[in-house]
Amino acid sequence: MKNKTEHYSFNAAFSLDPLLNFWKQNVTPMCSNMAAMFATFKEQIDVTPELQGAIKDLTVVERYQDLIAPLMSVVFPVATWETELSGALTPFDSRPVYVSPGFRSLFVNEDGALKGHLKEDHGVIDGGRLLRAFFQIAEKIYDIRQYIDTPVIRVIPDPKTGLDRYFRMIPDLRFVDVHTTGEVPLLKPEDRAVIIENMTDPEVLRKYLPPEKFELRGFTVVRAVDVTESEVISALERDLIDQESIFSNDGFRRLKTRLQTLFGKPDLMADMGALQGEQVLIINDVSQTEVNCIYTNSNHIPLSEIQGSVWLQAVEKGSTLRIPDLRAVRNPTVTEQHVAASGARSMLISPLFYQDSILGTLTIMSPEPNDLGPIEEMLLKQITPLFSVAMKRGLDEMDNQVQSIIKEKCTAVHPSVDWRFRQAALSHMDRLRLGQTSELEPIVFKNVVPLFAQSDIRGSSIARNRSIQADLIEQLTLANKVMNLAIKIKPWPLLKEYRYRIENRIEEIKKGLSSGDETSVSDFLIHEVEPTYTELTGLGPQVNRAITDYKNTIDPVLGVVYRKRREFEESVSRLNERLSAYLDREETTAQSVYPHYFEKHQTDGLDYLIYVGASLRKDGVLNSFHVKNLRLWQFMVACGMARETEKIKPELKVSLDTCHLILVNQIPLSIRFRYDEKRFDVDGAYDVRQEIIKSRIDKASVRNTNERLTQPGHLAVVYSRPEEEKEIKRHIDFMQAQKCLLNNIEYLELEDLPGVSGLKAIRVGIDLEAQNIVQLNQQMVG
């Protein structure tokens, strides 16, 4: 940004006059000895033209130090001269004239100019400098008093470390006078009003107070205060608002530089560890971007590799951990050895918490042993909350991106396999960040055991057809009544034809419902019969009442009689809701015992599918006990579903029964997520057999009979292998002993299904009066 002061031609010069006036007015009246001193100084100045008025040649200050130093002692006390960072600078352009040794060492170059630069302020400091000059003119020439306190921060390199240090420069303008050159601009009342209204607009002020008409004489007193700590912490706050400050090489490098400045250690190293499940993401400014991580400056370390390490010790401690020398740590882990080999000796580790949940760690390291002590520990504690908030926001943003990809590509994902989809999404995002073409990788789980069961509403199609028949016959009968009453008054041939067609449709529907009857009857009544009602309303009150009865029976939304169909749909819906709620409760309990993949489908009744396998688990561990436990759980849930049906039957307007089936298949298979269909499907030609059986088993019948396998109030268990039969029999024996199943067990062979043969089944009655089914479920899975 171009310096704003370049557009203004203020005349400014160093002068001792304001200092001499200060002595005369404020110092000499208080002390006769000081008055005598001042008289001596004044005599010498009066005979030294170089020290009078505006002093353009600043070298005279050095030549007359013996005279100027005593005069300046009322501004810069001798007691603090060697320790204070202060000095006298020319007004406006700030050239050093008379400065303390510390100020000269830190702030003054060999050519006499100020070192360093003003902190980036988007023009605020330059604007403040201009305004202070205008305020001086307005106050001392026109008695318009205003004040501004814009902080001026100068950044200079530390002579020892080379790191930036920040100093607030506090100006004192008491020793600056304003002189006029030429004719002084006169201000009208309205001009003064405009100036006061625009005291922060240099362009307006220049119009009424032209700089070339004034001269600033004297010197500005400046005192410098080290504000490095507060400035760096403020800068860290600003940087950490930006997610990229942590999760990119350049951003983290900038943060590390800030930390080096804050701690005053140019060799300081830093990194962060973000806890992600069973992995730790190491975030710093040196990792390669090719690593497989969403963070372009991070690497993955299994959590198991840092067990017992200093980082987990810090987490367990819950506060900053100080390690004087990493090489002195006993029995170092592999990770500790690696960090020590990289040059780290002294360390401070702060755990990053957010609302009592651990997110990771912040580590600062020095290549020197015992270099990070209690003072640095206190300073690190001060900034740790900033990094905690930044880490939380970054992890949340990453999670949002991952979930967005999963929802786009996969819709809802069951919690048991969410970890695998997150891995795929992270890898996908990494490749995109590296500019590579990418799609989500295939997600396949091998060697999983399927558990399938269904509770089907028996005869739902027949019940649905009956409800349709009843509604159609009722509507046709009402329409026929209108025709009969109208014909008695007006025996028009067309009305007789309509009556004939209506009666024909009634007889046809009573015999049986065809697939197109529902639509054709509705079209006939709506488009042919009902339009005649406008003409028939004038035939008398009986016809009018018949038409009103017809219309009142019609559903206002659907335009047809829908009473029986609504009763059927409401009954099916209530039964489904009851069974679904029961299954959800039991499934929640089962998940708490052993997490597994679960999906449920609901039509007329419902079915569910469970997959269990080591590959589905992040830890890769599966105990066959849990597979057997879930199979037994299926038996108990089936009994519970039958019992729930019996409980709700009295509340249903249409009587409904449910049939219950379990498919047992102990042979593991592989499943693959189909991105196009957004669901899991079996993977491999052999495994398709399971899908075929699932889709057709509810229609299976007992061999050499026309009897359906599934029957109301019974549990049918389908299998194909002898060892499966043994397990089924053990479960049934147990359930019979618990008074959940009856003692009417049947061993059946099934008719071949398309593409499937050799299936067998065991069918047994369910004790629908049993009261201990729910308790048994809770005992077995809880």
Keywords:
single chain; 782 residues; alpha+beta; Beta-Lactamase; 4 domains; nine-stranded mixed sheet; six-stranded antiparallel sheet; 25 helices; 19% strand; elongated
What's this entry about, in short?
The protein is of the alpha+beta class and 782 residues long. It has 25 helices and 24 strands. It is elongated.
Write the layout of secondary structure elements.
Blueprint: E1 11-14, H1 17-27, H2 32-46, H3 59-63, H4 65-72, H5 78-81, E2 86-89, E3 96-99, H6 101-107, E4 117-118, H7 124-142, E5 152-157, E6 164-172, E7 176-180, H8 189-197, H9 202-208, E8 214-218, E9 220-226, H10 228-241, H11 249-263, E10 269-276, E11 279-283, E12 298-302, H12 310-317, E13 321-323, H13 334-341, E14 346-354, E15 357-366, H14 374-410, H15 418-433, E16 444-458, H16 460-489, H17 493-511, H18 517-529, H19 533-536, H20 541-553, H21 563-593, E17 597-603, E18 605-612, H22 624-648, E19 657-664, E20 669-674, E21 679-682, H23 688-696, E22 714-719, H24 722-737, E23 746-749, E24 760-765, H25 773-781
Parallel strand pairs: 1-8, 19-22
Antiparallel strand pairs: 2-3, 2-9, 4-5, 5-6, 6-9, 7-8, 10-11, 10-15, 11-12, 13-14, 14-15, 16-18, 16-19, 16-20, 17-18, 20-21, 22-24, 23-24
The low-confidence parts are 287-297
**Radius of gyration, whole Å:** 46 Å
Helix/strand class: alpha+beta
- Tell me, rounded to a whole number, the average pLDDT: 86
C-alpha termini separation: 70 Å
Number of helices: 25
Helix content: 40-55%
The coarse overall form would be elongated
Range of strand content: 15-25%
**Largest sheet, if any?**
9 strands, mixed
- Tally of DSSP β-strands: 24
What's the domain count? 4
